[in-house]
């Protein structure tokens, strides 16, 4: 009971900080909402979260999606069930849990793509799963409020005009937990699943193709219109040496060596930061909407709508994305994964009095 009251106090404090947003009305009955509200923290329907007179209203659960719209999730292995059990569920699907004791937010996710160009590490379900390693069945604001409850203060999303300003905010350490094919629990820094993109074309100016060489050869091509030599994807040492032996032209040699250097696997090292996304007002209804509900939960390409972003310039342009998944480290699609979000520096959450508790 004491833990529940402490959790409720933290969430009310978070509600006072969280921007005023109007959420869709819940279809649950009052009794169902009251029962679920004992442990869940979804934003109150139609409540201005920054309003003192509504800040102590009991939280109401998010609207459960129609069963027909939800695909079956792969059952969590026992080891991951135990991990999620260490936190208090914050949503009706119990996919977001607050572990105050260990200062972390837990996300029950699933692998969406193990070998793709990336815009995100984790997106919301049925949004951008073709360019995200993981998907989460939840509302984005639940994750936001959970981070607030842990003492994390959102920073500022990326801006592109009038000049580029990278995203800022408190660092969030992210770890992924899964059970491998041998039944062993694994845990690693989420960045080990991401690398700088090499599945792309590399080009170098060259007046003419190598004489006497029939192209394409391996992944080497020549563009006569732009007078460029092209290479696609990762180049091995063996491929490099074979290409260097074709022609001793200085520019060709430089192109091959550049292709080899730039196409080598480089792990992701950039930090993740809690930017907090933003809100906008719908013209037709006047309703304020949290932009991260478009799917941008944990991004590796810069979006102003990102809830969590990378603290660097990272392209989301088609064909120019900065990152891709590492198929040698990411488990196969459908694998359940528990994500840990750990604010690197946490502010103390001021406890507030709760009425009628």
Largest sheet: 9 strands, mixed
Number of strands: 19
Contiguous runs where pLDDT drops below 50 for at least 5 residues: 16-65, 351-357
Distance between the termini: 10 Å
- The pLDDT mean sits at 81
The rounded Rg comes to 24 Å
CA-based shape: elongated
Helical content, roughly?
10-25%
One letter per element, helices H and strands E, the order comes to: HHHEEEEEEHEEEEEEHHEEEEEEE
Q: In terms of structural class, how would the helical and strand content be classed?
A: alpha+beta
Strand content: 15-25%
How many helical stretches? 6
In short:
The chain is α+β, with helices and mostly antiparallel strands.
Keywords:
6 helices; elongated; 19 strands; 17% helix; three-stranded antiparallel sheet; nine-stranded mixed sheet; alpha+beta; disordered C terminus; 357 residues; 23% strand
Secondary structure elements and their pairing?
Layout: H1 2-17, H2 30-36, H3 78-85, E1 88-89, E2 96-99, E3 104-111, E4 117-118, E5 120-124, E6 132-136, H4 140-149, E7 172-179, E8 185-189, E9 194-196, E10 201-205, E11 220-223, E12 228-232, H5 237-244, H6 250-262, E13 272-274, E14 279-281, E15 288-290, E16 296-299, E17 308-310, E18 323-325, E19 336-343
Parallel strand pairs: 5-6
Antiparallel strand pairs: 1-2, 2-3, 3-6, 3-19, 4-18, 5-16, 7-8, 7-19, 9-18, 10-12, 11-12, 13-17, 14-15
Helix pairs in contact: 1-4, 5-6
Structure notes:
This protein has six helices and 19 strands. It is of the alpha+beta class and 357 residues long. The strands form five sheets. Strands 1, 2, 3, 5, 6, 7, 8, 16 and 19 form a nine-stranded mixed β-sheet that branches. A three-stranded antiparallel β-sheet has the order 4-18-9, with no helix packed on it. A three-stranded antiparallel β-sheet has the order 10-12-11, with helices on one face. A hairpin with a 6-residue loop joins strand 1 and strand 2. Helix 1 crosses helix 4 (140-149) and helix 5 (237-244) runs antiparallel to helix 6 (250-262). It starts with a helix and ends in a 14-residue tail after the last strand. The model is unreliable at 16-65 and 351-357 (pLDDT under 50).
């Amino acid at each position: 009971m004491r833990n529940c009251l402490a959790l409720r106090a933290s969430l009310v404090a978070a509600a006072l900080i969280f921007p005023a947003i109007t959420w869709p009305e819940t279809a649950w009955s009052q009794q169902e909402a009251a029962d679920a509200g004992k442990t869940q923290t979804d934003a109150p329907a139609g409540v201005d979260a920054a309003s003192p007179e509504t800040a102590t209203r009991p939280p109401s659960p998010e609207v459960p999606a129609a069963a027909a719209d939800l695909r079956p999730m792969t059952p969590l292995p026992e080891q991951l069930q135990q991990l999620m059990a260490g936190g208090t569920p914050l949503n009706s699907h119990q996919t977001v849990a607050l572990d105050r004791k260990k200062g972390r937010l837990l996300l029950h996710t699933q692998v969406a793509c193990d070998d793709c160009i990336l815009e995100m590490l984790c997106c919301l379900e049925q949004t951008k799963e073709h360019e995200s390693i993981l998907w989460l069945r939840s509302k984005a604001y639940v994750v936001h409020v959970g981070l607030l409850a842990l003492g994390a203060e959102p920073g500022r999303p990326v801006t592109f005009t009038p000049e580029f300003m990278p995203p800022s905010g408190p660092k969030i350490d992210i770890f992924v937990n899964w059970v491998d094919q041998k039944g062993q629990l694994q845990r690693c820094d989420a960045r080990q699943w991401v690398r700088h993109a090499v599945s792309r074309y590399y080009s170098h100016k060259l007046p003419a193709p190598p004489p006497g060489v029939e192209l394409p050869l391996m992944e080497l091509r020549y563009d006569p219109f732009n007078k460029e030599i092209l290479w696609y994807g990762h180049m091995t040492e063996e491929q490099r040496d074979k290409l260097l032996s074709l022609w001793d032209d200085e520019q060709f040699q430089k192109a091959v060596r550049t292709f080899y250097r730039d196409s080598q696997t480089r792990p992701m090292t950039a930090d993740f930061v809690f930017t907090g996304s933003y809100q906008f007002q719908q013209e037709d209804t006047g309703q304020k909407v949290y932009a991260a509900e478009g799917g941008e939960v944990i991004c590796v390409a810069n979006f102003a709508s990102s809830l969590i972003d990378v603290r660097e310039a990272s392209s989301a342009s088609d064909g120019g994305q900065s990152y891709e998944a590492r198929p040698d480290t990411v488990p196969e699609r459908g694998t359940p994964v528990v994500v840990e979000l750990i604010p690197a520096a946490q502010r103390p959450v001021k406890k507030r009095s709760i009425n009628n508790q």
